[in-house]
Amino acid sequence: MNRQEIEIAILPDGRIEYTIKGVKGSACESISALLEQLGQVEVEERTGEYYDQDVTGHVSLHNA
Predict the structure, then answer these.
(1) d(C-alpha 18, C-alpha 2), whole Å
(2) By C-alpha distance, which of 32, 25, 29, 23 is closest to 2?
(3) Nearest Cα to 9, choosing from 18, 36, 33, 49?
(4) pLDDT at residue 12 in the model
C-alpha cells in the first residue's frame, strides 16, 4: 500500500493550508471535507494524483 500523508501548514496570519498526498482519485474529497470544517475555503487546487485512477480492479471470466 502507498504511503498516505496530510501536510498541514499554519500561516502567520492564522490561515491553514493542507496538501493530501498518496490518495488517488476523488477519495481525497472525504478527507478534505473533514479538514474544511476548520474554516472557510478560500482556494482549492487539485493535484495530479486527483486525476489518477486507482488501479484496483476485478476480472471474472466465464466459459460459454
Answers:
(1) 19
(2) 23
(3) 18
(4) 93
Pairing mode of beta strands 16-21, 5-10: antiparallel
Strand partners, 20: 6
The predicted-structure confidence for 25-62, as pLDDT tens digits, reads as follows 777 788 888 888 877 878 878 777 777 765 554 444 55
DSSP labels, 11-27: -TTS-EEEEEES--GGG
| Domain layout of the chain by residue ranges | 5-51
Q: CA 49 to CA 20: how far, in whole Å?
A: 9
pTM: 0.61
Q: Are 22 and 3 in contact (CB under 8 A)?
A: yes
